[in-house]
Design goal:
There is one protein chain. The chain is an alpha/beta fold and 300 residues long.
């Protein structure tokens, strides 16, 4: 039996979303054998105090896991600092980690997939992470059960201490490397989405995205992330309830209950990358600006 990775859940002030996330996790096959760490950020303003308290009261009654530890922040760190600190702390202690935020509903097979993949690619230095969500791609039937894309991602993911050590918090260094290697266009999926602009805005203080820096950190180190052909994660946060969040259903997916997981060559799947580009270009019936407004929740 493999050692199961600890699950780390980040919460704030959305009770209903947190409940959906936790209840889906509880239905996972390996929940009862898994450790769950919950990082609850402190209220940013007085108007958030009641909602944060409500979430924290709910967290105290959660059952169904091998161990549950709740870390209540005594001051507001914000999403980025909360996640960076929490991931670093747990992955450095346990060596592996599975990460969720409070608006991600998982398939009952999610933990099985994550733990199997973590074990399967544990010693593959080029693999940065395992991802549970995948876009509703235009032609998924052309793809294998799992595939690799260069970079990293943030909607239901897992990684190792050996990979997280490459996380670079300084966006300036990441931008310099992209410029030096002339890879900004590739980083942007050949112009399909302005990730470089998002990274520049992070440096300018216009956003505080941890995820764009995680994606860039893996990308500049030529590392890959494993995706399933069909999604094991569904984001329920696009209802105007969260930070940097817009209302849309363009990222909605049906969850699958199993992925045939066989080890594949550690190389980027060109067909999958092409489909990512097509999806990003065709997501909006209006404009690239619309895509920016709805997809930025993924990286902010």
């Amino acid at each position: 039996m493999i050692n199961l990775a600890p699950i780390v859940l980040f919460t704030y002030n959305r009770l209903w979303h947190t409940q959906q996330t936790v209840e889906a996790l509880q239905r996972n096959q390996l929940a009862g054998e898994s450790k769950l760490f919950i990082f609850s950020d402190s209220p940013k303003t007085e108007k958030d105090e009641a909602k944060v308290k409500e979430v924290r009261e709910y967290l105290k009654d959660i059952k169904g896991f091998k161990k549950i530890e709740i870390i209540e922040r005594d001051r507001n760190l914000g999403l980025a600092a909360n996640i960076i600190d929490g991931v670093t702390r747990i992955v450095n202690e346990y060596g592996t980690i599975i990460v969720l935020e409070d608006d991600l509903v998982t398939s009952p097979y999610f933990l099985t997939y994550m733990n199997k993949a973590l074990e399967m690619y544990r010693d593959e230095e080029k693999v940065a992470s395992i991802h549970g969500y995948v876009y509703p791609l235009p032609n998924p039937e052309k793809l294998p059960e799992t595939f690799f894309i260069r970079g990293a991602d943030c909607w239901g993911w897992a990684t190792w201490k050996r990979a997280w050590q490459y996380f670079e918090p300084d966006g300036r260094k990441l931008l310099a490397l992209l410029k030096e290697r002339k890879e900004s266009s590739l980083f942007d999926f050949n112009g399909s989405y302005p990730y470089t602009r998002m990274l520049k805005n992070q440096v300018k203080g216009k956003n505080n995205s941890w995820a764009i820096r995680w994606y860039a950190s893996a990308f500049v180190n030529n590392m890959l992330t494993l995706y399933p052909r069909k999604s094991l994660v569904r984001n329920i946060g696009f209802d105007n309830s969260g930070t940097h969040c817009s209302t849309t259903d363009v990222f909605d997916v049906e969850l699958v209950n199993e992925v045939i997981l066989e080890k594949i060559p550690v190389e980027e799947n060109k067909e999958a990358r092409k489909q990512f580009e097509v999806y990003l270009r065709n997501t909006s019936p209006f404009s690239l600006r619309f895509i920016w407004n709805v997809i930025r929740r993924r990286f902010l």
